[in-house]
Specification:
The protein is an alpha+beta fold and about 55 residues long. The protein contains 1 helix and 2 strands, in the order αββ. The radius of gyration is 17 Å and the shape is rod-shaped. About 5% of the residues are buried. Bound molecules: zinc ion. The site of zinc ion (ZN) has 8 residues, from loops.
Length: about 55
């Protein structure tokens, strides 16, 4: 395997991991049910628990 191929594969893996991890970091985790909701959601999408302000 050449160095260029190795670099392309590694970049692809990193991009794939980033695509999986970043969306989860941009979501809020409900303290009641553990469900994830968008950052702009005023309350949990699963159980309806309202998120505290400032988080
Ligand atoms: Zn919830």
């Amino acid at each position: 395997m050449s160095g260029l191929t190795y670099a392309v594969v590694m970049l692809s893996v990193m991009a794939y991991i980033t695509a999986i991890v970043v969306p989860s970091l941009l979501r809020r985790r409900c303290r009641v049910c553990g469900g994830r909701s968008p950052m702009d959601a005023p309350q949990c999408r699963k159980c309806g628990e309202s998120f505290p302000d400032g988080m």
